[in-house]
Model the fold of this input.
Amino acid sequence: MDEEEARPIEEGETLGQRIRRIRNDRGMSLAKVVRDDFSRAFLNQVEMDKTRPSIRLLRVIAERLGTEVEYLLEGHEAGVERELALEKGRVLVAQGEPRRALLALKPALASFDWPLGSDARVCQAQALLALGRKEQAAAIIAEENKAIELHNDRYRRERIRAVERGRQFQIQGDAVKTHLQLADRAARSGHNHDELEHYRAARILLETAATAPMET
Done:
């Protein structure tokens, strides 16, 4: 955790005050945060608590500031419990236990943060499809497709297409190389969550290959 994120939250700090504090701590101008997505005047109004951004814009602001939506809204990090819930859900879906997956996913489904919340809801749709609840799954997929297109995320676009077809997503070709390339891309984009996910996947694949018995 960065030093500035470890500082105690001031009592009664508002959303706008929190955004301004983090922005100033990071030495970022209004222009550097807003870029071409919205105006400096709008962000200034947000920081003065005169207007409240949508969840979509909060995601953009959080990403630019290198923090999470939950932190901006509530003043504390979501912690690992939501990431753990997502991974448990994914494993249970892969093991053919969609009902247990839906229960495991609950802590992650409420996340507004990209990509954790979206990943959890796509996994939820996958579990619902396995249970034959196609309409519910289709509604979730439609919403998450919008988020994926908004972020122009090719990796997640392929994942959600596999879910729509009722298939388990698999990387074609050299999976380790692909994960390392995706980790590098995530690092350059400042997407720490994705960077960690792809490095972890590459490590597991390498360890599995190293411990696999030699063919005779």
In short: The chain has three domains: 4-74, 81-164, 175-210.
